[in-house]
Write a structure and sequence with these properties.
33% strand, globular, alpha+beta, Fumarylacetoacetate hydrolase, domain 2, 253 residues
Length: 253
């Protein structure tokens, strides 16, 4: 993509995030054709919004590439936050375990191995709020969704768990509760089984450019699948003996 096309796409996505109006699609003139295009649009959108990047969500493309979605600082909240449902109207909710970098993992030629990343992070429970700048979220092209911060609306984090290495994160018990009703109660369920694996992939993707800095967060995918809340509801996630996190979606007055 040309710089002008990246800027055009970023302008449309930034305006949609500011005014809440959903796009039918990105125009052909500025639609991403590669994963690098989509990531470049994200970075340009964050600049247009004047936003700092607090971290990333990470996933894999069908071809096995590492896709990332920026978590914007002002849309990242501590547990028990109260959010207007109107600013994230899709109200998609996912229970996740995320990792906070305790020290820098800077750019370098050699790959970081699993043990290096594990030694540099602390885990914490989280709720990702899924939202979209597109009218037809599920039908939007994958690269368009990646350009839209991988459909991240907001991110809610609980307290860090300093003993996280003592837990079996492949089989940990997890419960997703909405207004007191358990929607999901299961053991394990992460697509990678071990949620640290996507974090390692993200670190090694970023080592080719700027690396990952201390304090940044990497969230690695849902244990519970994608569910939907409604305005006025309270969502709580608990990982057994590990920690909990919750958010209240306030309805319009």
């Amino acid at each position: 993509m040309t710089p002008d096309a990246i800027d055009q796409a970023a302008g449309l996505l930034a305006d949609a995030r500011r005014n809440g109006q959903r796009l039918d699609a990105l125009p052909e003139s500025c639609r991403p054709a590669t994963l690098d295009d989509a990531h470049a649009i994200q970075e340009a959108t964050a600049l247009r919004l004047g936003e700092a990047i607090a971290g990333w969500k990470v996933g894999a493309t069908p071809e096995g590439g590492v896709a990332r979605g920026a978590l914007l600082r002002s849309w990242t909240y501590a547990s028990s936050a109260r959010l207007s449902a109107a600013i994230v109207p899709l109200l998609g909710i996912e229970a996740e375990i995320a990792f906070r970098l305790d020290r820098d993992l800077p750019a370098r030629e050699r790959e970081y191995d699993y043990s290096e990343v594990a030694a540099a992070v602390t885990a914490l429970p989280a709720i990702e709020i899924v939202d979209s700048r597109f009218q037809g979220y599920l039908n939007a092209p994958l690269l368009d969704r990646i350009a839209d911060f991988m459909s991240n609306g907001a991110f809610i984090h609980g307290m860090a768990q300093p003993r996280w290495r003592d837990f079996d994160l492949e089989t940990i018990g997890v419960e997703l509760v909405v207004d007191g009703q358990a929607l999901v109660r299961r053991s394990g369920g992460h697509a990678s089984k071990d949620p640290l694996l996507p974090a390692v992939a993200l670190v090694n993707d970023r080592r080719r450019s700027s690396g990952v800095g201390a304090g940044q967060i990497v969230t690695t995918g849902t244990y519970t699948g994608l569910h939907y809340a409604k305005p006025g509801q309270r969502v709580a996630v608990t990982f057994e003996d590990f920690g909990s996190v919750e958010v209240q979606f306030e309805a319009a007055p």
